[in-house]
Write a structure and sequence with these properties.
Two copies of one chain form a homodimer. The first copy, chain A, folds into two domains: 131 residues, 60s Ribosomal Protein L30, Chain: A (2-Layer Sandwich), CATH 3.30.1330.10; 145 residues, PurM-like C-terminal domain (Phosphoribosyl-aminoimidazole Synthetase, Chain A, domain 2), CATH 3.90.650.10. The first copy, chain A, has a seven-stranded mixed beta sheet. In chain A, α2 packs parallel to α6. Chain A is of the alpha+beta class. Chain A starts with a helix and ends in an 11-residue tail after the last strand. Chains A, B: One of its GO terms (molecular function) is thiamine-phosphate kinase activity. Chains A, B: Pathway: Cofactor biosynthesis; thiamine diphosphate biosynthesis; thiamine diphosphate from thiamine phosphate: step 1/1. Chains A, B: Catalyzes the ATP-dependent phosphorylation of thiamine-monophosphate (TMP) to form thiamine-pyrophosphate (TPP), the active form of vitamin B1.
Chain lengths: 305, 305
Amino acid sequence: MTSESTFISLMRAMAPDPAARNLLDDCAVISLGSETVILTHDMMAEGVHWLPNADPADVAWKLVASNLSDLAAKGANPLGVLLGFMLGDDKWDRAFAAGLETALTHFGVALLGGDTVANRGDKRALGLTAIGTATCIPVPSRGGALPGDLVYVTGTLGDALAGFELIEAGFDEVGPLAKAYNRPEPRLAEGRLLAPLVNAMMDVSDGLLLDTERLASASKVEIAIDLARIPLSPTYVSYRGDALESRLQAGSWGDDYQLLFTVAPHTEVTAAATQVGYVREGAGLSLFDGETRLALPSSLGYQHH
Amino acid sequence: MTSESTFISLMRAMAPDPAARNLLDDCAVISLGSETVILTHDMMAEGVHWLPNADPADVAWKLVASNLSDLAAKGANPLGVLLGFMLGDDKWDRAFAAGLETALTHFGVALLGGDTVANRGDKRALGLTAIGTATCIPVPSRGGALPGDLVYVTGTLGDALAGFELIEAGFDEVGPLAKAYNRPEPRLAEGRLLAPLVNAMMDVSDGLLLDTERLASASKVEIAIDLARIPLSPTYVSYRGDALESRLQAGSWGDDYQLLFTVAPHTEVTAAATQVGYVREGAGLSLFDGETRLALPSSLGYQHH
């Protein structure tokens, strides 16, 4: 199969419009008269992004949440979504529809349109487009981190990983960890608070380390992450401890939907966030446990091969 | 499987925002400051919208063209697209990418973003979101046809049907009929010319008769179509003749991507179009061959079951 990076390279070569932001930024940023439109499209596929036994209402929630998380990283106000839906069995489709309504109501986002296609017995693929408007110009990108910046992440990491493990182990957990996996909360309010302050911002959908490497690459800087600083929830710690291995896993797992951002030193950060590293001249990701430099693990996060 | 109409009914119940136009209109119409954004999303699935032996470049073209056709029916200026792509084998993906570039260049539309997902050996599903801006307020809808209006369609109908038959029969035809099927031209220029003139407009993607019935239903009127008036190309006539059966098929086949619209009597229609019927009080579609009323065929066009 074509690798994701190969295909994106092909696409990038045909996307010179500045609104495409060189396809590095999760969202298109389109200036239209007095407004700036933020537009994003994410797909989810059965067997890749969800297991066949997943609750269709959770699938609907994550489809909405993952797109809104891209808008959050732009400091955008979400307006609405368009759904691309592959029809399947009636019970699944109705449960999905009910879950979609729950999610849209929760996030205060309108269903604006979409399309349905027949299904010839294949695994499902779903798409969602989200549109929002910028609240802050310039709209944050992945590419603005500067040497000397401090690196922060909102909330805690690893809860979705722990929730996934509990669900997989058959605990049918309905506690905070399973909720972190099934019903992530994109950081929309935090994104709007942070957008005027940051030099660079993106959401952490594929793991802190992998996404940090992407932000460093887009900004042409090196980012040092200190695993000792990775924010863990008390529930996560009670389940998996806070040893180095546990912190490393919390930093290499996707589905957290927190915001990763860099700010100039001495910036007053007005959203709940933890400093996890800093930016310096160089390239790529470097990893520390306090003062001790660590080798990079073979996998930094979730890659869509 | 859930029927398309059942699922859309579920969606409609949760789409009260006026920008959604009650999900009757193929596009969302969003007022943003000084601009009006037109947004549409269409999916295509292997085995439903294209056969496994189709040229990937043609699939890319049709994905772009079908979305731009929705914008054409709104009189919109297209700005760009976001692609939802399911990765597959390298040769297919590269041919698709090359075809996408050809289509985007041809239509002068930017690639703005999108998403890729892995493929676990399933048939492919692709999605495209197109964004444009309105050139005319109010933006045409399906719902504005008035009793007394005349009903027109741009271009000719049935060419895509004939092209599909030639391709299926193994003629590997590269002439105008195959081109009509593989490389349809959305009526963007015509849509902008017509938008200020029409009472109702939509694109003919699923067949003239089916789409006319939909327009009649959205407008709460009856529309009479005269099969004797259906515009056929000389190439189509030389291949399939112009007898009633041939006209009926030309009116019941999708993929034409012409514009169907209604105007008040005595309107000067400034785009190349043929009057095929008229609007009167009542409900639904009625069918004539000249003065002779015909029974409706069991299938009016392409339905996504």
